[in-house]
UniProtKB/TrEMBL annotation:
Pfam families recorded: Robl_LC7
Protein name as catalogued: Roadblock/LC7 domain-containing protein
InterPro entries per record: Mycobact_SerProt_Inhib_Rv3364c, Roadblock/LAMTOR2_dom
Signal peptide as annotated in the record: none
Residue ranges of domain Roadblock/LAMTOR2 in the record: 13-103
Cross-referenced Gene3D superfamilies: Dynein light chain 2a, cytoplasmic
Length: 137
């Protein structure tokens, strides 16, 4: 069960739509909780949005682990994956929240990163995800 209300999900989808419009080379974007639950998506169908959320959660978790092991910080700012015809950007977006963006291979990484950071900075207080209570049983 998601901690995001339908109204919040629509608001977040609207923000993601704006990001996609600012950077036409973005194919789709997903806002997710750090444990992989999709909060909002734009530009991808539901199955691909959920897959991207799970993938981004795993990659970001590994990056945080690398930060703990090799950087004494335990935090990660961004993960970038270059594929043959796409680029994947995964950024911290607030407490327990991550933003994943899938762009075409010809996307300018500086522009994509800048626009992601601008979006996150503008709405960061609203992007945090409360920790889920532990299941009892």
């Amino acid at each position: 069960m998601s901690a995001v209300s339908p109204n919040q999900a629509a608001d977040f989808a609207w923000l993601l739509k704006g990001l996609n419009q600012e950077v036409p080379s973005i194919r789709g974007s997903v806002l997710l909780s750090s444990d992989g639950m999709m909060k909002a998506a734009y530009g991808l169908d539901r199955a691909n949005s959920e897959y991207l959320a799970a993938l981004a959660s795993g990659l970001f978790s590994m990056a945080r682990s690398a930060g703990t092991r090799f950087d004494d910080a335990g935090e990660a700012r961004q993960v970038v994956v270059e594929l043959r015809s796409s680029q994947l950007y995964i950024s911290w977006a607030g407490f327990n929240s991550v933003l994943a963006v899938l762009a075409r291979a010809d996307a300018d990484p500086g522009v994509v990163g800048f626009e992601m950071a601008r979006l996150i900075k503008a709405v960061q207080p609203f992007l945090g995800t409360a920790a889920r209570p532990r299941a009892e049983g």
